[in-house]
Write a structure and sequence with these properties.
By secondary structure, the protein is of the alpha/beta class. Among the domains are: 15-232, no CATH class; 246-289, no CATH class. The protein contains 20 helices and 6 strands. A 6-stranded mixed beta sheet has the order 1-6-2-3-5-4. Strand 4 (74-76) and strand 5 (81-85) form a beta hairpin.
Length: 451
């Protein structure tokens, strides 16, 4: 939703698009909202990197996807995609979260994925992850919108439809996760305390509240096995590095401020001058649209940690939200210099550049969008909308048609995707990259559907 005098807060929940499947007749349907935040995903991946490496998995190939759900839950789906509920992030410490991630890594390495009744659901969910769900949102707010953005899809597509939750597989994932933590030099005590907590709460919770217990059935044998391992592990008693704990607390503060800005202001009071508290307050003010109260806090954070790209990103967001797109460019450029692999920041920079409606900046916008498209597998509708805008500034009608075809294809609009792809083929030189991709899109949308 838009405010009369300025852009809506760019951390507002934005439905990038609505892609869903028809639920079976009589089935109760819930919507699952996926969130994405580059800093949160980067922090979790960095924390878990030693575990992924111990499992023989490339950390960069693992997608961390946030689910806006207050329950304690995590699951894997569609390949190397770990879905983590916001409730799990807010109710665990760093060691417990690592224990859960190690367990879920055991599912990935063990191949504990099942083919659902319709294999297309698995492929579809994988493609959603590739879209960079919510990262490059902001269609309604006209903001590429760093920070948290959201997307909805049917809950029935997830969790039980993708994993087999047999006791044997849960025990196997436990053992694999424990071995990965041991090899990585990480204490498994966090997994034990998490399972103990889950076991203690399970009799008191409803089926809805006990999501992790429901999808990861606990047994006394599992608990005893993990406890026995912890008792003999050489890593027991080894604390996580202080910087790891603090960075986890930072993303918790950011997430809490996003979900409950007033609650965050009550929790992270003005007399607390820690980075975690100031970051929480800054993000809460940002979430409330109080840019001028957030800005001094962000400037102070940048002064204290000038090489933190995510602090510069937040400053760019504040400028862009406040209608000061030219002033957002420098912070975004600095953020990209410090975090060059962050696709959302590149899209935000392109957005800030294009808001100036100046053909002189179109090439810089296009370069950043092209890098972001490769990182996010090119499937963001907003990214391609910006790409079309940039090429329009350059007067390149063929590439405008191509980018518009990509946008329509990403949102599932088959007639428009076909029309724009055919138009791009007519306007672009035969054999050029855009012409070839337009052919690919037309071929995809013209594929006969399976009965």
């Amino acid at each position: 939703m838009r405010k009369p005098s300025r852009l809506v807060s760019i951390v507002a929940m934005v439905a990038v698009s609505f892609l869903s499947w028809t639920a079976p007749a009589g089935a109760q349907r819930r919507e699952m909202q996926l969130l994405s935040d580059a800093e949160t995903e980067h922090t979790i991946r960095t924390m878990a990197r030693p575990i992924f490496q111990a499992a023989g998995i490339d950390a960069e190939s693992v997608n961390i996807v946030l689910v806006n759900d207050r329950t304690l839950n995590a699951f894997v789906a569609g390949g190397q995609n770990i879905f983590i509920h916001t409730g799990l992030l807010l109710q665990t410490d760093a060691a417990q979260l690592l224990g859960v991630v190690a367990h879920e890594t055991g599912h990935i390495a063990g191949g504990h994925l099942v083919r659902g009744s319709d294999a297309m659901e698995t492929a579809f969910l994988s493609s959603l992850v590739g879209m960079g769900i919510g990262i490059i949102g902001g269609i309604a707010s006209r903001n590429a919108g760093a920070g948290m953005a959201g997307m909805m899809l049917g809950q029935h597509m997830a969790e039980r439809n993708f994993l087999s939750f047999s006791r044997g597989q849960e025990s196997s994932a436990d053992q694999a996760g424990l071995s990965y933590m041991e090899r990585a030099g990480v204490s498994a005590s966090g997994l034990l305390t998490f399972l103990d907590k889950l076991g203690a709460e399970e009799p008191l919770t409803t089926d809805r509240e006990a999501a992790y217990a429901r999808t990861h059935p606990l047994t006394r044998e599992r608990l005893d096995s993990v406890r026995s391992f912890v008792e003999r592990s050489r890593n027991t008693g080894r604390a996580l590095p202080a910087d790891v704990v603090e960075h986890y607390q930072r993303i918790q503060a950011k997430l809490y401020a996003y979900l409950e800005p007033q609650g965050a202001l009550n929790r992270y009071r003005a007399d607390d001058q820690s980075i975690v508290a100031r970051y929480g307050r800054a993000y809460a003010y940002f979430r409330r649209g109080e840019v001028m109260r957030a800005l001094p806090l962000v400037d102070g954070l940048i002064q204290q940690e000038p090489k933190n790209g995510f602090f510069h990103e937040l400053k760019g967001d504040l400028m862009l939200q406040n209608g000061r797109a030219p002033d957002a460019v420098a912070p975004y450029r600095k953020a990209i210099e410090l975090a060059p692999d962050s696709a959302p920041i590149r899209v935000s920079l392109a957005h800030a550049l294009l808001e100036q409606n100046n053909a002189k900046v179109a090439d810089e916008a296009i370069r950043n969008l092209q890098v972001a498209a490769k990182t996010q597998q090119g499937q963001s509708t907003f990214l391609w909308r910006l790409m079309a805008q940039a090429y329009a500034l350059k007067g390149n009608d063929g590439m405008v048609a191509y980018a518009s075809a990509e946008e329509a294809f990403a949102r599932g609009d088959v007639p428009v995707a076909r029309f724009q792809a055919e138009r791009a083929e007519r306007l672009l030189p035969a054999g050029s990259p855009g012409w070839l991709r337009a052919q690919d899109i037309r071929g995809q949308v013209d594929k006969p559907r399976k009965p």
